[in-house]
């Protein structure tokens, strides 16, 4: 009788990174696979489900306007309790660091269902940055039975926390599996992005939304971006803006009024991935794009004071600029002006694998149940 695996995710980043694993597990047929979504982020989650043709077996549909972390946590725990009682899976697979991840792992613990943690072992060393993700990761680690670590550094973090070595598999990151499945050399965007001169301009992809950057840090970042465009006539910026109205207000005040700054609505994953492929550099406060961009040879300027992905910094694919205007500007301007500096980062080896993470996870799962 096949062992039953259940996967759960609730946000766009989780869905992107879990989608190739779901598809592989379904294709291989070694396990019975059930898919549950919490819809912590409804609209953006649905875009990914449609792209990868995944139809959930369960949809908790928890998203509510103005929801707090407490709201999400309590609704996920209660919803997952009912799902887990109904399905009685042999293992629940969670991903990364969202509130869905931690709350689902906790619900599984209450039902004595083993948990497998995909993208395990990332640490920033500051429990409030990123918030609440850093603590979500650590709490999920304490509950999990299997830990799928993207890098050797992540494995070492887990060993320091007394996780047994045989429970850890270094796999690479599943986002590379997802990325390679959607990149197309002749990709055509259509719409607003047709106005972007990818051939003759150095296009900067900007993403900025992280909670700890709200307020003055975000103002500093946007001022640095505006200054970069004003000082370099060969630079264009594409900013798929977050839905948060506070972010939109600051962006409108600082970034509007320049025809080389394109503020656009959030993109589906396929056009977003191909946008990374066509841009010159990435400026971001996000996490996942620190893994994706290096796989496509794109230098990344991280607008945060620390990162839970230090191997990218060590590999030379990422530079941490902080959140002060001059520092952000100087880090980006160097990559625009200095070809040697740019090429050194662009040619650095991506530390997050070569697109075989899902196969390695499948192998570890088979070994676990075999033994």
Automatic annotation (TrEMBL):
It is an enzyme of class 5 (isomerase). Belongs to the UDP-N-acetylglucosamine 2-epimerase family. Residues 25-365 form the UDP-N-acetylglucosamine 2-epimerase domain. The lineage of its organism: Bacteria, Bacillati, Bacillota, Clostridia, Peptostreptococcales. Keywords: Isomerase. This is UDP-N-acetylglucosamine 2-epimerase (non-hydrolyzing). The keyword Isomerase applies. GO terms for molecular function: UDP-N-acetylglucosamine 2-epimerase activity. Pfam families: Epimerase_2 (PF02350). SUPFAM superfamilies: UDP-Glycosyltransferase/glycogen phosphorylase. The keyword Isomerase applies. Its EC number is 5.1.3.14. Signal peptide: none annotated. NCBIfam families: wecB.
